[in-house]
Amino acid sequence: MSLSSTGSPDTTSRRRRPAEHAQDSSSEHDPLLGYSNEQAHDRLCGAQHADSSTPSSQHSLYPATKCTAACACPSHHACEDSWEESQNKRTIRAENEVEANKLVNNYRFGFRKWKSHVTERPFEGRSDVVKELYSELNVIKPHSGPGHFITCGNVAYVLLFGWWVSLAYFLVGTLMFITVTGVPYGKLCWKLCCYFLWPFGNPIHEMGNTLRRCCERAPYCECSMEAEEDNSPFLLPSPTEVPVPEMPDRPLRTPYWRRFVTYVWLLLGYPPLVVVHSLACFISWILVFTIPVFKMNARTLGVILLLPPEDVSISAGSQRKHQGYETRALLCCYHAANWYYYKYTIDGINVFAANLLPLVIVALVTGYIDRENKYASSDVKFTIAIGSIIPLSYYIGMGIASISAQSNFAVGAVVNATFGSITELTFYITALLRGHQQANTCLEEVVKAALTGTLLGCILFIPGICMIIGGLRHSEQRFNSRSAGVSCALLFISIGGVFAPTLFSKAYGNLVCDSCTNSTGANSTSNSSGPFVCHNCHYDLSNGTLFHNHVQPLVYTVCALLPVAYIIGLLFTLKTHSHIYNIHVGEVQGMNHSNESHLTVSSHHGTVVHWSRWRSLVILILATVLTSACADLATEHIQPILSQPNISQYFIGVTVLAMVPEIPEIVNGIQFALQNNISLSLEVGSCIAVQVCMLQIPILVLFNAFYDVGFVLIFSDQHLWASIFSVILVNYIFMDGKCDYFQGTALVVVYLILLAQYYFAPSPAGC
């Protein structure tokens, strides 16, 4: 797997970045670099202490705030009003026009917020932390001493990789000594045996022409690497180099590919080391945080082991004194692990999503080839199929963002509306079809539980966990209460519309029970008096004309009104009342302050997009097809899990099936919260919940109208009251426009309490 970067990997040459591009390293991967909410509040409330001669550059970073003595807040309420006004004029920066289009098309309420950059970011403008992630291990850097390398990651390297890689080199070196002709390679292997046991701070060099000339003239003397300067570029001969005259007592070197020992090495020594280094590369890449070990093994396998052994020099860190010698380093590793590799991307895709992609192949192979479960059980197949949906949903999101960023708003809106919920809809429709074919009503209840679980997770868990993580870094976070009010209003409309048929059926339906007994234990058919105890009671909608003449028309009416409310909400936030959000994208100097959103970006040229429109479309369609296949496998092998006597089917639906496709969104919300942009974190959950009620459920009802799979929009009491209570609770917390980790803890605790209810709830009828 290639690890290419967009710029030079040399981390020793640091360029001074312009002041307008200076950013905190913690916000390096955040495309939404708005002004800090806490700083904005402090600037407003502390304006009376500000110097009137504040540089204009500070004002340009936040045009809605003027920190002069004349704007001092006369009271606490006036200060809050000023802060609220400033929040309605947030500024979001983008590196180029494509990223700005993505923000405009995806930021507004109603569309999902995908975090990934769709363009390559200039390497020279990145922080030192990110440059370190993408740098190759061929640069020698100053360090304080040998003790500087004794870290937990380096010690873990010795335990996980170092000892067995060194042992492999010792065995291969012994083998090469046995062949006699491979003695030079045997010496090299023994040197590398000691090197890979503790490689940190010890560089490996390729001898340049000057050093090779020195060794050829004095073959029995110790060649000093600092004896003679060689300024020739790495791996390139110097244009002014004088040919070495042929010595009568020492012939010229035989070319590398004309030596017999080369082929002995390639046949006997190199193949086992290929296996060893490939295994080390695989393990270190899967662990993600040990990617430096991957780079070290890959560079050794592809470069060092294919050089003549006399050209490879391994030296201790204390032997480096000559500056010109550094340009000829092949490998120099200082740390085996780096925590920040969670930010690492490959062609715009996060490394975790890329590592999970092979699960799709494993799921398809084990699911469609091993039909008789000879090599894997149904539980394993279900787990792999559900896990494979995670990277596919990430790729779908990246495709949506790429097409939206390179198109106008209309195309972006269509793509978002079409593919935004494709992962969940694919699973729901597949489950309903399989349940209809098998006459299994349990799958319908599982789908309803998954829909309710998505609502509860997006209303309670996603905002709650974002408040907790963001509150631990920032004591108090603020958000636009007006935009949150719009989201809460749409949530009320959504929940009210979706559960209206359920309330209607409870008001007018006939309560039917499977069995009833009185307090004395007699059957219900006896004439004994006393209170009766009934079991498995439910509202019967199949008998009479209540369902066909009253409930079903109500369902169709509600499902027709909910998308209309969704469109009205989009018009409200996109057109008529866009000043509630008033998003400024791009460079803010000279930007006016009208009510409409602005798109002003200075860097239009030189933008490199990761995925083109056609590539994004192909990946989007392919990921959708693969998602359908994985969803089909998951529903095929879910029955053994549903048959577990100790786990309620409700619990499986509201947890695994509901939240697994939303894992990329949870990660997005957490990253926004860490950047003190809690507004986006809260809108991530609200957006998904509204899409579930106003788009996904009407689509399922429409699908059932054309192909009857038995999907009835009637939910159980637990789904009904849990959803209503969640919306009321989150609306109460969003009222003041402030949040902290305590409020987030309250939401998460309530969510866990509801999950406990589902866990101990009896299985639904028909399961």
UniProtKB/TrEMBL annotation:
Keywords: Antiport, Calcium, Calcium transport, Ion transport, Membrane, Phosphoprotein, Transmembrane, Transmembrane helix, Transport
Location of the protein in the cell: Endomembrane system
Record bears the keyword Ion transport: yes
GO cellular component entries: endomembrane system; vacuolar membrane
Pfam families according to UniProt: Na_Ca_ex, YccF
GO molecular-function terms, A-Z: calcium:proton antiporter activity
Residue stretches making up the Sodium/calcium exchanger membrane region domain: 382-499, 616-756
Compositional bias per record (Basic and acidic residues), positions renumbered to this chain: 19-31
Domain Inner membrane component: 152-202
Annotated membrane topology: Multi-pass membrane protein
Name of the protein: Cation/H+ exchanger protein 2
Gene that produces this protein: cax2
